[in-house]
Amino acid sequence: MATEPLIQGAIMLLAFAMFWALKYLSQQGLTKFRSKHRATLQTQRQLIQASRLLARARATTKKSQSQSLAKTALTEADDVIAISPDDAAGHIVRALALDLLGHHTAALKSFDTALTYPRLKSLSVGERADALVKRAEMKVAVNRRRRNDSAIEDLEEAVRLAAGTDTARIFRLLGECYEYKGLNEKAQWALSKH
Q1: What is the pTM of this model?
Q2: Can you spell out the DSSP letters for 159-193?
Q3: Could you read off the pLDDT tens digit of each residue along the chain, which spans 194 residues?
Q4: To which H or E segment does residue 58 belong?
């Protein structure tokens, strides 16, 4: 008879411990999930805002307004990078804003950062090909003589990644790079694919 109240007490204690654990642990898990989710949403919101500002900066004909919008897009991109430094999209938007502002060397550095390993995982294959093409275009525009070989490497990688989807621009630029380097046969091949 004395064991029965002990068993009932142990069951009550176990039930109370289970109830407390479920309530406490679920609140902890939800708090962590909410804070991670909130940061992701904020990053996406700022990235969309930066992209819109960048598109408006490209579309406007007034240089002063274009520069102002590009600077604001750059600020938004920097905020995205501060929140999520391992996401390549923020670095790419930053590079595009810097390019629009005329800071080509800094834009190239930002593209290089976006296309390094930890950030590279966040890009899809098509996005990676587009980023490589844009980086190659910038390399050719900044200093064709010194960066031509590097641009060719980027474009060859982009052709491999794109695998037949919208490669005309890539092959045109690749043909120009081959032609500048004096590889006329490869240039003709690339331009014929164009």
Answers
A1: 0.75
A2: HHHHTTSS-HHHHHHHHHHHHHHT-HHHHHHHHHH
A3: 578 888 888 899 989 888 887 877 777 665 665 555 666 788 889 999 999 999 999 999 999 999 999 999 999 999 999 988 888 999 999 999 999 999 999 999 999 999 988 888 888 888 899 999 999 999 988 876 778 889 999 999 999 988 767 788 899 999 999 998 888 898 899 888 76
A4: helix 3-59
User: DSSP string spanning 12-34?
Assistant: HHHHHHHHHHHHHHHHHHHHHHH
Mind listing the domains of the chain with CATH numbers?
Answer: 40-123 (1.25.40.10), 125-194 (1.25.40)
The answer to whether the CB of 175 falls within 8 A of the CB of 194 is: yes
Contact 68, 53 (CB under 8 A): no
DSSP three-state, residue 73:
helix
| Residue 39 token pair | 């940061």
Structure tokens at 75: 């600020």
* Residue 143 neighbours by CB distance under 10 Å: 14
Minimal CA–CA distance to 123: which of 88, 79, 154? 88
